[in-house]
């Protein structure tokens, strides 16, 4: 068996690879990167590295050759037109290389969103299904990193978190949990033609967030609704489905996702 992972130099790819090393022999893993510098940490560990650039179709077929499983980590390019073209290159190369199973990092509950980003993931899923290659869609929740835009440290200093009015609920979890689930799927046989929504199993609210902040800071933090708040993130959150949940992740990793209190520690740095 050989497991080929694209985007292996990225934050999610690195976490998945590290988890996978605990589950399968190292000689079954192939890390795909697009530069010499990002290849080095893997080469030093003795992991096989292949060059792969989504913009260079000629690099992809040889990168994917012999793959029993190809984990395609979605492109991080900010332009959706370019990103879709890159995804098309990867899918065409997977077909030509006769990849046996194609796993794709999609976005959770894309059907319920009203902006192009989740629709791009949905279009990529459809393009993968059209190839006939057995697939596994890992639909990732919005990473909990989004709370980095809320300046929790200042909110703790002030003793209040101000948010726009609304019934805000979130399914966000840390990348680490998503990586664990992806590694579990990669290491096990099966999971063919399945779609997993990798989210928290129950939603959390801003009240839960302020409670977790207060507990970590050992001081009160209240929640205030403020209609004058201007922060792009709320516009984005309103246009995606950031709240629907599923038990898929919990079932794949054999435990609930990381608690909110634990998840927000890196964003508070007290
Ligand atoms: N669910 C969410 O909240 C969320 C948030 C942000 C992004 N995402 C998506 O999830 C993916 C993984 O997240 P992440 O945190 O690991 O992102 P990341 O750290 O930015 O990693 C992106 C990876 O994609 C690689 N890549 C980008 N363009 C490429 C190309 N043309 N050819 C080959 N490889 C290319 C990068 O390679 P280099 O190291 O060479 O740049 C890097 O390894 C992102 O790419 C994005 O599509 C999801």
Please tell me about this protein's structure.
The protein has one domain: NAD(P)-binding Rossmann-like Domain (Rossmann fold). α3 crosses α4 and α4 packs parallel to α5. The chain is globular. With 270 residues, the protein is an alpha/beta fold. It is built from eleven helices and eleven strands. A seven-stranded parallel β-sheet has the order 3-2-1-4-5-6-9, with helices on both faces. Strands 7-11 form a two-stranded parallel sheet. It has a two-stranded antiparallel ribbon with strand order 8-10. Helices cover 41% and strands 17% of the residues. α4 links the parallel β4 and β5. The structure holds NADP nicotinamide-adenine-dinucleotide phosphate. NADP nicotinamide-adenine-dinucleotide phosphate binds next to α1. NADP nicotinamide-adenine-dinucleotide phosphate (NAP) binds next to α1.
Short description:
41% of the residues lie in helices and 17% in strands.
CATH topology: Rossmann fold
The CATH superfamily is identified as NAD(P)-binding Rossmann-like Domain
The general outline is globular
Count of extended strands: 11
* Rg from alpha-carbon coordinates: 20 Å
Distance between the termini: 45 Å
The sequence of SSEs as H and E is: EHEHEHEHEHEHEEHEEHEHHH
> Could you say what the CATH architecture is?
3-Layer(aba) Sandwich
Report on the biggest sheet.
Answer: 7 strands, parallel
The helix content, as a percent range, equals 40-55%
Beta content comes to 15-25%
- By secondary-structure content and strand pairing, the structural class works out as alpha/beta
Reading off the top of the CATH hierarchy, the class is best stated as: Alpha Beta
Low-confidence stretches are none
Domain count, please report it. 1
